[in-house]
């Protein structure tokens, strides 16, 4: 027959074993997270790019169903009012402002300011000049600190896959 003091000793030993097991599991998890943090960030950014692409195509589809207006009204995630989204002649999201147009496009599509997401994303307007046709094309490039980016072309409505600069 066991006494109360023996039961207490067993309970204390069991408690110590449990604490050691939890500590080892936490150490393994933390090291795994640190080793794979960049992959987690890339996966998150790829998801953001896919969401961006889906919303661009949803606005374009709404534009086609609404008989091609200059402004498309879509349901907002955060309010009951519909959100007014300006589009170009081809029905792709575009803004007419000269400064920070890529940030404005991000705000329209994602409904969250670019500075409010957990990943540090920069919006850069990239200009390409074609000498054959003497025309200029502007695209929005959304870039992470590690150089990964995706682009949005408001003329064609194309969202690129996430690319990495090496």
Task: Provide structural commentary.
- It is a single chain.
- The radius of gyration is 26 Å and the shape is elongated.
- The mean pLDDT is 87.
- The chain has one domain.
- The strands form 2 sheets. A 4-stranded antiparallel sheet has the order 3-4-5-6. A two-stranded antiparallel sheet has the order 1-2.
- The chain contains 2 helices and 6 strands.
- It is of the alpha+beta class and 166 residues long.
- The protein has helices spanning 4-65, 101-110; strands at residues 71-75, 82-86, 121-130, 135-144, 149-153, 158-159.
Shape: elongated
Task: Say how many strands there are.
Answer: 6
H/E topology pattern: HEEHEEEE
Radius of gyration: 26 Å
Spans of at least 5 consecutive residues whose pLDDT stays below 50 are none
Major β-sheet profile: 4 strands, antiparallel
Distance between the termini: 70 Å
The fraction of residues assigned to DSSP E strands is: 15-25%
Average pLDDT, to the nearest integer? 87
Query: How many domain regions?
Result: 1
Number of helical segments with 4 or more residues: 2
The helix content is 40-55%
User: Strands of the largest sheet, in order across it?
Assistant: 3-4-5-6
User: In terms of structural class, how would the helical and strand content be classed?
Assistant: alpha+beta
């Amino acid at each position: 027959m066991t006494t109360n003091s023996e039961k207490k000793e067993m309970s204390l030993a069991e408690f110590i074993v449990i604490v050691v097991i939890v500590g080892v599991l936490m150490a393994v998890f933390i090291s795994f997270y640190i080793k794979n943090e960049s992959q987690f960030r890339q996966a998150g950014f790829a998801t953001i790019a896919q969401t961006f692409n889906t919303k661009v195509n949803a606005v374009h589809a709404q534009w086609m169903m609404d008989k091609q207006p200059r402004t498309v009204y879509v349901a907002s995630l955060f309010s009951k009012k519909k959100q007014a989204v300006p589009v170009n002649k081809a029905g792709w999201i575009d803004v007419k402002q000269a400064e920070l147009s890529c940030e404005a496009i991000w705000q329209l599509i994602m409904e969250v300011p670019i500075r409010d997401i957990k990943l540090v994303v920069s919006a850069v307007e990239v200009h390409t000049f074609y000498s054959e046709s003497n025309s200029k094309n502007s695209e929005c490039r959304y870039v992470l600190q590690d150089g990964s980016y995706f682009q949005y072309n408001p003329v064609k409505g194309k969202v690129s896959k996430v690319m990495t600069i090496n």
